Structures are given as structure tokens and as C-alpha cells.
Amino acid sequence: MTSAFDFEARDIAGQPVSLGTWRGRVLLIVNTASQCGFTPQYEGLERLWQSYRDRGLVVLGFPCNQFGRQEPGDEPQIASFCQLNYGVSFPMMSKVEVNGPQAHPLYRWLTEEAPGVLGTRAIKWNFTKFLVGRDGRVIRRYAPTDTPASLAADIERALGEPAPADAR
């Protein structure tokens, strides 16, 4: 696989989705969890989605229960939580593993393309983010502590347009 658009995943309803559906768009791919100290980042991710989606950004949430068992629910519970508590309307995927032998192929590829600190491939915690350009290549990996708002300038550059004031 040479591009993020070559992968498939299942959406939160369990239906197969080709990431090729978003070919030519900028992707922000995030492993999420509902019971994490970083869970309020859903609000900022939704703000980015609302601000940039018409310009070509797609935020993709991938729930994961590998870090402190902070995503214990099933897909309907996760979808309900995200919508009710944070108004999430960006595409959410089915729960995946991001590390280890059962890691989703997309995450194996992302971590190869954009290793973390000191070259580590493993995802260290919930809300690790990957920005993927319109060409399907990883632009940058962000730590869980990087807030969605702090990504606005990089998203702007990837989109090739100035950031709207409400995204900052």
C-alpha cells in the first residue's frame, strides 16, 4: 500500500468503507476513546471538521480500547456518546487496535510512514493524530497532547487555503 486511500475500514455501523472515497481530500486520522483525559478533544476535532470540511478536510475517528481500557463500549454506545456529548458528526469508524499483531493495516502503515519520538512505531496513547495530504501520503504525526486547534496551520497548508477564524 502506498497511499492512505488504498485502505478499507468499517464505519461505526459496521459497513465497509474504502478510504478511497475521500481521495483528493486531506485526512486527519485519530485513535479515540470515550473515557480518557483527552476525550474533550472531540469538541476540537468537530470544530476542525465543521470549519474545513467544505474545503476538503475529512476527520476520521477510530475508537480504540488498547490504552487503559478507556473505550469499553460497543459501536452503538460509542456513536451515541460522541454525538450526545460532543455533537460529533465527522465519520467514526468501528473499534480497532492500533498496536500489536491485530493492529488495523491502516495503522500499521501510518506508524511506518510517520514514526513517533525516537523512531518508535507504536502509538503511545489515545488521540494520536495523523495528517494525510491530498495525495494520500502522511504529512505529520501528532502527539495526544497536541490539541486539534494547534493543527490548524498545518491543515491550512495541506488544504492550500487560509484557515477560517472559527477553526483556531
UniProtKB/TrEMBL annotation:
It holds the Pfam family GSHPx. PROSITE patterns: GLUTATHIONE_PEROXID_1, GLUTATHIONE_PEROXID_2, GLUTATHIONE_PEROXID_3. The keyword Oxidoreductase applies. One of its GO terms (molecular function) is peroxidase activity. Keywords: Oxidoreductase, Peroxidase. It comes from the Bacteria. InterPro entries: Glutathione_peroxidase, GPX_AS, GPX_CS, Thioredoxin-like_sf. Gene3D superfamilies: Glutaredoxin. Belongs to the glutathione peroxidase family. This is Glutathione peroxidase. It comes from Caldimonas aquatica. The lineage of its organism: Bacteria, Pseudomonadati, Pseudomonadota, Betaproteobacteria, Burkholderiales.
